Amino acid sequence: MSVRAFIYTVLVTLAISGVAALSIGLYRDGSLAVSGWTDAVLPGPISAKHAFLSDKCETCHTPTRGVQAAACISCHTTAAVDLGKQSTAFHATSKECRGCHAEHLGGVRPTRMDHATLLRIGAFPQNPNTSAREVIEQMATDLKKFLRLPKSDEREKAGLDCFNCHSNRDPHRGLIGRDCASCHGLDSWRITGFLHPSPTSKDCAQCHQAPPSHYMEHFVMMDKMITGQEHATVNQCFLCHRTDSFNDIKDIGWYKHH
Ligand code: HEC
Ligand code: HEC
Ligand code: HEC
Ligand code: HEC
Ligand code: HEC
Ligand code: HEC
Ligand code: HEC
Question: How many domains does the chain fold into?
Answer without folding.
Answer: 2
